[in-house]
Amino acid sequence: MNYLFMAYTIIWALIAIYIVVLGKRQGKIVKELEFIEELKKVNEAK
């Protein structure tokens, strides 16, 4: 029964880490999209 608890804890820890990694990736993508939008605005102004 102790192994079951350990496995359950490890699985939830991995899920939590995965969610954090996805959040960081999403943040990077949002910043890149904002940068691209700014470049587009600058190019349209020319």
TrEMBL record:
InterPro entries xref list: Put_ccm (IPR030888)
Transmembrane segments: 6-23
The keyword Membrane is annotated on this UniProt entry: yes
UniProt KW keywords: Membrane, Transmembrane, Transmembrane helix
Name this polypeptide is given: CcmD family protein
Organism name: Schinkia azotoformans MEV2011
Biological classification of the source: Bacteria, Bacillati, Bacillota, Bacilli, Bacillales
